[in-house]
Specification:
The protein is an alpha+beta fold and 200 residues long. It has two domains: 12-153, Immunoglobulin-like (Sandwich); 160-194, no CATH class. The chain is built from three helices and eleven strands; from the N terminus they run αβββββαβαβββββ. The chain has helices at residues 2-18, 98-101, 111-120, and strands at residues 22-28, 46-52, 61-68, 73-77, 93-97, 107-109, 126-135, 147-153, 160-163, 177-183, 188-194. It has a five-stranded antiparallel β-sheet with strand order 6-4-3-7-8. Strands 1-2-5 form a three-stranded antiparallel β-sheet. It has a three-stranded antiparallel β-sheet with strand order 9-10-11, with no helix packed on it. It is elongated. The protein starts with a helix and ends in a 6-residue tail after the last strand.
């Protein structure tokens, strides 16, 4: 009986050592670029810091979900295709960015979100939550706690020229400097510029 208990304890220790818990810290900009492909070009948009709790940790994948604020999942990573990562030895940190955590080619979006992304490269303007979790690369068992952060995607509006008015003719002889007023949707901006005219 004691031998059996001892074997169970040893088996549990081996299993625990082989599946060391991974600690992670997710950092996401509150208002990242609306174009999701831009996330991978800007390291400051999303960073996931992963470190092993203990001295031995095996390879892992990152399970990623994008949710609405009510918890509805609108995108999830295809774990069969996502990359495998290996923690830095000795408990060092592994730093991952958007291209690692949310590779768009391996993210599966649903319904109108998939349509919007395919047509515009963007999700509809709204508040979202992104959640990440380290999992085992073979059986996808959980290797650490889920980390979630909220973010807001704004709809982008092209600037509208307010002055000079539509088809207004500028008098090139009166002055070489003209005043322009632009409405960028959130703020208005005024510009004064010199327009070169042939022959002047």
């Amino acid at each position: 009986m004691m031998k059996r208990i001892l074997l169970l304890i040893i088996a549990a220790l081996i299993y625990t050592t082989g599946t060391a818990q991974l600690l992670s810290n997710l950092i996401v900009q509150a208002q990242p670029p609306a174009q999701l492909s831009e996330w991978g070009n800007r390291r400051e948009v999303l960073t996931l810091i992963v470190s092993a709790q203990g001295t031995i940790a095996g390879p892992f994948k990152i399970k990623t979900e994008i949710r609405l604020t009510d918890g509805t999942v609108i995108a999830t990573s295809d774990l069969a295709k996502t990359p495998v990562f290996t923690p830095n030895p000795g408990g060092g940190q592994t730093i991952l960015t958007a291209n690692d955590v949310m590779p768009l080619e391996y993210m599966m979006f649903t319904g109108k979100y998939k349509t919007s992304l395919q047509r515009t490269g963007k999700l509809p303007a709204d508040n979202y939550t992104i959640c990440t979790q380290p999992v085992h690369p073979v059986d996808y068992r959980v290797l650490g706690e889920m980390q979630c952060k909220n973010f807001y995607l704004a709809s982008t509006q092209l600037p509208i020229l307010m002055k000079p008015y539509n088809e207004e003719v500028l008098d090139a002889k009166s002055t070489n400097s003209h005043h322009f007023q632009v409405d960028a949707g959130v703020t208005q901006a005024n510009f004064t510029g010199n327009i070169p005219h042939p022959g002047f």
